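Blinded run. Sample ID left blank on purpose so nobody reads anything into the name before looking at the predicted structure. Input follows.
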Amino acid sequence: MKVKVIYTRSLVKIYSKADPIATHLRNHRKGGYTTRKEHLCSHHQYYKERSPTYYMQRGYNHSETLYRYMEALFKQDKYPEQLYKTCDGIMNLARKTNLEPFTKACDIALEHQNYSYKFLKQVLENRMTEYPEEPVIKSLPSHGNIRGASSYK
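Blinded prediction complete.
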């Protein structure tokens, strides 16, 4: 079915065969979108019930580390609604994984500032949480051309 869309500064009107079928306030936010809950299918209405606070609370109920991870996830420059599916995946991963390795995986992700389901899953799959973290200490190699502190006085 073809529809005709007419918009003004403040309204968007949609017509089908000259009959008006919808009128909405226009949103000028760059990259933004507007929705009415009653127009969404039931699956999407489920997401409208969600909020960053909802996911951070679920993270806190799991562990302090997951809470900090969720908090950092929502501080990104993305719309929260775009992150809900990621959060659902992370919570599913948390449910399927033992607490200690999952917490270590979150710590690694926080350290690397990588806030994605895929990164957490790869850290767990590659068993990166099993290796003890050793600080990398680089010593200077022995070399005849290296001068000591006395050369710089």
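Unblinding after everyone has recorded impressions. Helices lie at 42-48, 52-62, 64-74, 80-96, 99-112, 117-125.
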